[in-house]
Amino acid sequence: MTSRGSNTGSSGPLRTDEKIAHDPILQFIAPEIIDQTVESLSNSPLDAIGLAFTSSSFKVGVSGEQELLARLSSVSHGIRLNTTGTAATAAIQALKLEKIAIMAPSWFDEDLCSDGKTYFRDQGLDIVSATPSGPMGGPLTINPAATATAVKNLVARTGAKAVFIAGNGQRAIGAIDQFERDLSITILTANQVLLWASFEGTDIRRQVEGYGRFFATG
């Protein structure tokens, strides 16, 4: 990842002052990349394919994402497709959550966070905040303690009753249960909701432990 406007990629962990460039967000879902990938994966005996790139959902918006999924359905051979955005929306609606704060990673800029707020609000969801408030330091340096501190600070600042930890590079899934116990709020993460959506229609959801209370809802 590089800072916006940079001409070259960086090596090693993302620095705290860098923001993900917007052009690669759109390149990720370009036909010559993602269509070929989905078609290749769909030749395997799969039940679901997850598109784990939160920023793409935010960047193209609800209508753009629907167009993307419609396009990909022509090459997915009937395999169910989920994006982080559609999965998060389904989870929020299933739990009837209100006063949700989006904790975007530190490498999202304010424009991308604003896109995220619009993405969910366009679907009638109650978003009270969307900020790059995740732990600083980049994907390879994030740990549960830093994430817990960031979540606590965000809840204290916004009064949120639920937090969506956006960005599939924010490693938080292993600490969800502790967050929910300590803060008495619902925690959703990008990878968690994508996993949940991929298990739709199966009994596997109820067998998952340690990934948040909402798996028990089936």
Automatic annotation (TrEMBL):
Pfam families: Amdase (PF17645)
InterPro entries according to UniProt: Iso_Racemase_Enz_sf, MaiA/AMDase
Name of protein: Maleate cis-trans isomerase
